[in-house]
Amino acid sequence: MKFVIAVDLEGIAGVVGQPNMTLTESKDYDFACRQATKEADAAAKALFDAGAKQVIVWDNHGGSLNLEYEELDKRCDILLGVGFPHRWTSMDEDFDGVILIGYHPMDNTVDGVLAHTFSSVSYQWIKINEREVGEIAIDAAMAGEKGVPVILVASDDKGAKEAKDFLPWAETVATKIGFGRNAALSKHPDRVIDEIYEKTKRAVKRLGEMRPFAFEEPMDMEIRFKKLEGAEGMGKSDGWKRIDAYTVKGRLNKISEYY
Ligand SMILES: [Zn+2]
User: Side by side, which strands form the sheet with 247-252?
Assistant: First the structure.
């Protein structure tokens, strides 16, 4: 069995960031990196204990290079850096599942901790086939193109609910309850590590119930920008049209045409 664990930072236990700055600039960043390493390691250990032969940990927040690699179980491989040809580079159809750790709710989520979709400064929302989507669904669809299911998502309570809406088969771990963009009631970080370990083991036991996720193809994609300059620029590119001052619409055959 082979797995990939994708690790973002915003949904990690005990992390809320600070107003008007990126998580990377905030006081939370160093803690987020340490705790994310532990949460990823708990998932990796559970996968190896369940019989995994390969586990790739993908360090994907911001410009990558966040985790403390030497603290991960030494059986892990580590995908790091930026500029890969595909969001799931090095994963192929032979893989059995992916785990999303530290993921966050999509743009336009009330009280979602550090909620955004790929860029907190660029978009108000992104829709695919008229449904708002975030990184959980998009990364699940990108993995789904390779036939690989998401088996567990760890995020705040809003992100865990979003995961259940798109991926009803997946196990979820709600690391904290969001009360605002920078406010949460968090579970103790050590308890989250235990929960990720247990639920990862349960997810592997339930592997037969897991499904690769796909959007219906071809798909309509709408992007609403925060600044109308964004829509103005993109509305001029091939295959995209402006539907109002802030919003563009296009059609994709596959989600990987865009991401
Ligand atoms: Zn991130």
Answer: 131-132, 123-128, 219-225, 247-252, 240-244
